Amino acid sequence: MNSRTGTAGRKSELTRKWILDVARGLFNDHGTSAVSTNHIAAGAGISPGNLYYHFENKKDIIRALLAEYTTAYEDRWAPTADAGENLATLRENLAAWSELAWAYRFFEREVLALVRVDPALRDSYRETYARRVGQYVAFGEQLEAQGLLRAPAPPGTIHDLAVAIWLIGQGWLPFLDVTADPRDPRQVARGTDLVLVALTPYLTTKGRRALEDVAQRG
Amino acid sequence: MNSRTGTAGRKSELTRKWILDVARGLFNDHGTSAVSTNHIAAGAGISPGNLYYHFENKKDIIRALLAEYTTAYEDRWAPTADAGENLATLRENLAAWSELAWAYRFFEREVLALVRVDPALRDSYRETYARRVGQYVAFGEQLEAQGLLRAPAPPGTIHDLAVAIWLIGQGWLPFLDVTADPRDPRQVARGTDLVLVALTPYLTTKGRRALEDVAQRG
Question: A152–B111: do the CB atoms touch at under 8 Å?
Fold first, then answer.
C-alpha cells in the first residue's frame, strides 16, 4: 500500500483496488496464464504505465489478490464462552467460505501451479494454511470443552478432522470446475453439505441440536 | 495400441510403455509444462521420430498416462456377500490409492490445468470420476445392507460421503506438495488416516470391529 495521504493517496488506493478487481474477474474467466498485464490495464481502462506504477508484474498482482482473499476470511474463528454462538459462527463461516472461494475461484483452481512458480506466494499460502488449521483446531477444542463435539477416536485427532475438512472445502470448487457446471449456485452451495457430512458425526447430540436451532433461526 | 503382432509388435509395445514410464518420471519431477517431447525422447534414449511414431504429441502422452492410471485402479470395488472380505477390500484399496496417486502425482497436481486445455482429457476424467463414485456408492450400499455402515442422516446421502472421501483422497497429495515435504512416505500415508476420519463414524460397531480385525491381520 502506498504511504501517501490526502486526496491523491485515496485516489491511488482506489485505482489499486480497481486494478485488483478487474484482474480477479479476468483470472476467474480465462485463467491466469491467458491474461497479461496489458489485458488487465485495457480491462481497467488505464495505461500499462499506470498499472506498473501500482504493481511490478502479474505475480505481484496475484500475491496482492491472495492477501485480499486471506484478509477477508481472517478473524472469524474466535470461539466464545457461548456454545450456541459458536455454532452460529460455524454455520456463517461455512457459508462465507463458499462465497469467498467463488469470488477467488481462479486461485482455488490454480493454487498448485501458482505456488510452484512463485516461492513468495508459496510461503504466504503455507502460512495462511497453518494459521487457519490452527484456528480450526482451537475452535474444535472449545466445542469439545462445551460438550458439543467429540474428538475422533485415537489415533485420529481434531487436527486430522480439521485437515480433512480443509481438503473438502478447498477441493470442492476445482472439482466442480472439472465435473459439472461450476457456475450453478446450487452446486457451489453443496460444498457446505459435504463439509457437514464429515463434521456432523463428531457433534454430540447436544451439538447437533444446537446446530439445527441455528440453521432454523438463520 | 498398435495392432501389429509378433516380435516387432511386442517390441513396439515395450517401447511405448517405456516412453510412458520415462514421461511419467519427468512430469512428476518437473511438471508437464517444463517437459517437451524432445526431453522425453532424450530421457528414453530414442529419436524424436521414434517417439512420434508412438505418440502424436505431449497431450497424447498425457492422455495415455491417464488411461494407465485409471486402468490400474479399475475392478477393485466389487462388493461380495462376505462382509469381512468387503472391509479387507476397503483397506487394500485405500492403500493402493495412496500408492497410485503417488506414482501419477503429476496428474493429481495438475489435473485442473490439464483438463482445461484438453477437452478429450476432460471427458475421460469426468467419465472416470462418475464411474468411480458410482462404484463407491454401490460398495457403501452393500456395507449398509450388511449392517456395517449407516448412511448419513438426511439430507446427507451415501453419495455425499463418497464425494467427500473422493475430495480428501484427491486433495491430499497436491496439498502435501504445497504445505510439507511431499516425498516423505509417512506424510503420503497420512492420506489414508484422513479418509478414515471421514468414513469411520459412519461404520456401525460391527463395521468398526470388522475393520480393526482386518487391520490386525494385514
Answer: no
